[in-house]
Amino acid sequence: MSTIAFIDTRGDKLPKAAQEAVTYASQLAGGPITAITFGDAKGLEALGANGAKKVIVARGVKTIDSQQLTKLVCDVAAAEGATTIVCVHDATGKAVAPRVAARLKAGLVAGATGLPEGIRFRRNVFSGKARAWVEVSSAVKVISLSPNSIAIANNGGSAAVEEFTGDLGAARITVKELRKAGSGVPLPEAELVVSAGRGMKGPEHWAPVEELAQLLGAATACSRPVADMHWRPHHEHVGQTGVAIRPNLYIAIGISGAIQHLAGVNQSKVICVINKDPEAPFFKAADYGIVGDAFEVLPKLIEAAKKLNAER
Amino acid sequence: MKILVLLSQVPDTTARIAFTNNDTQYDGNGVTFIMNPYDEWYALVRALELKEAKGSGSVTTITVGGADTEATIRKGLAIGADDAVRIDAQPSDAMLVAELIASWAKDKSFDLVLAGKETIDHNSGVVGAMVAELLDMPYVPLASKLDVNGDAATIERDVPGGVEVLEVKLPFALSAAKGMAEQRIPNMRGIMAARTKPLQVVAAGAISNAASTVKFELPPAKGAVKMIPADEAGKLIELLHTEAKVI
Predict the structure, then answer these.
(1) Cα–Cα dist B78/B186, whole Å
(2) Is the entire prediction scored with pTM above 0.90?
(3) 3-state DSSP call for residue A176?
(4) Which of B136, B164, B209 sits opposite A175 (nearest CB)?
(5) B136: containing domain
(6) Are B11 and B149 in contact (CB under 8 A)?
(7) A141, A212, A223, A290: which to substitute to probe chain B, counting the most B Cβ within 10 Å?
(8) Which tens digits make up the pLDDT trace of B185-244?
(9) Which chain B residues are within 8 Å of A222, Cβ to Cβ?
(10) Hey, what domains does chain A have and what are their CATH numbers?
């Protein structure tokens, strides 16, 4: 009986989702676990604070080649005698977790939203409009964890980092190019999100949205029409067809709240809606609401955020 | 080029969500079922565009489901698929669906296997990857662009903070996300032609479930929204700090 966590740690700092997966795996195991990662990741020792005793890193894997990564996870699982394999339910984990499950004939919980109750894992279905409880009957379980589902443990300590030396075969996928789009917090990682829609009337009016986001330390997002009209870049589009997010705070300005938009944001812990139309459907999903014109409300929010920042 | 498109039938986006049979099954009573939008708009339409651009090849759809999915499957043929396969089983679990599809497809030499990014009911987004594993194919999730050139393909996908451009040799599988293609409405000629296109029904082999959904539930009702007058909008920031404690 042992538990391992497969995480994607590319980037300049340890991604939040990776720390969450290690925390989750170690809480499932009731003790420190082995984490598996790949690429040029640095600072992996710090995963010790989240509950890893050891981090195995396959330096030679440079891309999301899910076949190489699946072999990596299965090889480590066999060596460690792992019965529970935790992944993140993100663009990397969505390729690797199902492959590992299929290869090991293991039951998969795709997108668990918390620790199990007994042997049942909870996940969201129908775009957050319902939840399902899943039981796994196989000896080996694969759990992919939805981002922002668990508080990161920080117990100090340092993990031993080992290089994976086995053969993973040649990559069948090559990365030709990574076109960077802007900087700032990537949306799926963001705990606070300020989002705006057609109510902003044009891309030239986004400065106050960005200012509020910056004052709160939030990422910016937008609705689908705004991305489709090229007022904002496509990677900012949240909703059913865009990015699905579950931040602690979602502030929606000038977004009416169509069912497809709600599907991507209804897992946010606190939702604030600012809309001049009191009948906007978004108010039904909101925790806080302001009926008012975005151009009158935003300066007041900015002023209050500045005041709060000055006090703390 | 032989392309296989995975098609699911799902309740309409705006359908009422309720459960039956002691909360173990979705209650489809009176609900309109549709083709999963991501399978339709992104995977199927892009498959047809690739075939049309090349002027040769075939597009086959495959669905795991009962006879009640045949109207949806015929719609896929009306949009332009050449032929369709229905594996006669209830799609109760992703692994079961993937094993049934892979066992049918394994000796058919498909060059491309395209799935939508997820179904809008179960939201797992994992069947494509499982099929890829069982067919020993590379797999790229959440692709927003696909171009095939000879025996290699260029794929783009949105990743946090940018766009990743990938190259993969055929055969491979992917899941398709927004950007891949635009919706196509079937025309009368397509609808007529679909009536006589081949729809093969395959009996399902015995597959055991390693994971099963034992209960559905609705999320707890949201508390009433707290309204703040527009001229006191600044109070929202205070409340988020002192009451909701999120900033």
Answers:
(1) 6
(2) yes
(3) strand
(4) B164
(5) 2-221
(6) no
(7) A290
(8) 999 999 999 999 999 999 998 877 889 999 999 998 888 999 999 999 999 999 999 999
(9) none
(10) 3-163 (3.40.50.620), 187-311 (3.40.50.1220)
